[in-house]
């Protein structure tokens, strides 16, 4: 099983057999409130009729069309809708099947772009400590989670990492963006000085690092990365696999922070998690740079059998329609205050060393048990599941990201369940 304690699971399986709106049903017939939108992806809640119907209809009408040298209308329609939704300056879309594939696609676009514009010496990629960019080789190379990297050899060469922005000492219990740390962006200048700008193709960061425990950037940090990358001809890639599609109360993290990257990586909420699909948005400048040479030749040697799959495209269109009809891409902003107040009410409970929140994302960081890191948070996860709330843990951090349809009373349920659990944890 993926990212699972296999032996523990098999001794005591946790199985979901159905889901509707905010709840899962377990194999023993219990309702579990979804505090994590599945894996940060079911932003509109479960089994939404418009999406279910679109998938069924599309599978009956056109189940598959070859992705290479052929097209079908829904992929183009979805690409156009995405271009309308993303910030100005992101004008073209490449489809993938996951966040990991979107990351690989973005990194390859960046390297190839530098080559086609005559900057072929720019081969270096810069990521960030504690970054998560999926599990493929490019993604783990630019990513900064040790456990995901250490077993897999030398990874991509020519990669460097900026420091992460997590700073409990100065920023613990910040509400929203933490005050300290904007100068950490200047580490990029140091890295540019070390390697020289002429060797660097792109910088990739998550606007808010999610999987590593909800690390929120200080005000001005992303803008500073934008200024430094622009100054040195380096592409800026935002990995918005978690922050995309309403998670922060805006369509994308780029909107929330007012910073537009050259390339945006998305997946998860694009299809509400129902059908695997990712999308990478690029600027017109990047797209146009490839559109040269004889017209019968392929311009970019990359793609997947299922890129822009018709059923996935139909699911994506129905998902965007659902978000629009129900105002879900801004609902996180409406609920952010109640969410923040609820989470921060847990301050002072045993083991809690930090609480963080932004939009409809939250994290509660626990003091690890000496000599047994992750055990305390995992035990909170198991207890919450028994008590009817699905949470996620990463290290000793509880991460929360409910569907954007959550009600205030359901926020209260998550908070009161956690309060009870924190009081009983070893
Ligand atoms: C920021 C980020 N990038 C990439 C990925 C990888 O996505 P996937 O699991 O769909 O490959 C994730 C998954 O959580 C993510 O959070």
TrEMBL record:
Which keywords does the record carry? Aminotransferase, Pyridoxal phosphate, Pyruvate, Transferase
Q: Which Pfam families would you find in this protein's record?
A: Aminotran_3
Against InterPro entries, the record matches this protein to: Aminotrans_3, Aminotrans_3_PPA_site, PyrdxlP-dep_Trfase, PyrdxlP-dep_Trfase_major, PyrdxlP-dep_Trfase_small
Q: Which cofactor does it need?
A: pyridoxal 5'-phosphate
**GO MF terms, alphabetically ordered:** adenosylmethionine-8-amino-7-oxononanoate transaminase activity; beta-alanine:pyruvate transaminase activity; pyridoxal phosphate binding
A single GO BP: biotin biosynthetic process
For this protein, the Enzyme Commission number is 2.6.1.18
Of which family is this protein a member? Belongs to the class-III pyridoxal-phosphate-dependent aminotransferase family.
Protein name, please?
Omega amino acid--pyruvate aminotransferase
Source taxonomy lineage? Bacteria, Pseudomonadati, Pseudomonadota, Alphaproteobacteria, Hyphomicrobiales
């Amino acid at each position: 099983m993926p990212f699972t304690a296999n032996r523990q699971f098999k001794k005591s399986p946790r199985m979901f057999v159905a889901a509707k709106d905010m709840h899962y049903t377990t194999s023993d017939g219990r309702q579990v409130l979804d505090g994590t939108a599945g894996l940060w992806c079911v932003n509109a809640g479960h089994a939404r009729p418009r999406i279910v119907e679109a998938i069924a209809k599309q599978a009956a009408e056109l189940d598959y069309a070859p992705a290479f040298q052929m097209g079908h209308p829904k992929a183009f329609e979805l690409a156009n809708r995405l271009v309308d939704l993303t910030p100005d300056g992101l004008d073209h879309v490449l489809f993938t099947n996951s966040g990991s594939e979107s990351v690989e696609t973005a990194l390859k676009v960046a390297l190839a772009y530098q080559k086609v514009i005559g900057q072929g010496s720019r081969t270096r990629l810069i990521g960030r400590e504690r970054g998560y960019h999926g599990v493929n080789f490019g993604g783990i190379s630019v990513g900064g989670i040790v456990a995901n990297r250490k077993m897999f050899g030398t990874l991509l060469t020519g990669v460097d990492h900026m420091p992460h922005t997590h700073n409990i000492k100065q920023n613990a219990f910040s509400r929203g963006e933490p005050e300290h740390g904007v100068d950490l962006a200047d580490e990029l200048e140091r890295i540019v000085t070390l390697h020289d700008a002429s060797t660097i193709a792109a910088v990739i960061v998550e606007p808010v690092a999610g999987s590593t425990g909800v690390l929120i950037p200080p005000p001005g940090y992303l803008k500073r990365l934008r200024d430094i990358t622009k100054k040195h001809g380096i592409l800026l890639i935002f990995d918005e696999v978690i922050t995309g599609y309403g998670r922060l109360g805006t369509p994308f993290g780029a909107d929330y922070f007012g910073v537009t990257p050259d390339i945006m990586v998305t997946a998860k909420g694009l299809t509400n998690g129902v059908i695997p699909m990712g999308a990478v948005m690029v600027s017109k400048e990047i797209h146009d740079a490839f559109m040269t040479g004889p017209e019968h030749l392929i311009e970019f040697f990359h793609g997947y059998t299922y890129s822009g799959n018709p059923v996935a495209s139909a699911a994506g269109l129905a998902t965007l329609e659902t978000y629009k009809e129900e105002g879900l891409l801004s609902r996180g902003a409406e609920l952010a205050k109640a969410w923040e107040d609820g989470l921060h009410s847990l301050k002072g409970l045993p083991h809690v060393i930090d609480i963080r929140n932004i939009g409809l994302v939250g994290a509660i960081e626990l003091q690890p048990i000496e000599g047994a890191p992750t055990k305390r948070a995992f035990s909170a996860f198991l207890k919450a599941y028994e008590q009817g709330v699905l949470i996620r843990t990463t290290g000793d951090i509880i991460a929360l990201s409910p569907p954007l349809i959550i009600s205030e009373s359901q926020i209260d349920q998550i908070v009161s369940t956690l309060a009870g659990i924190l009081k009983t944890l070893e």
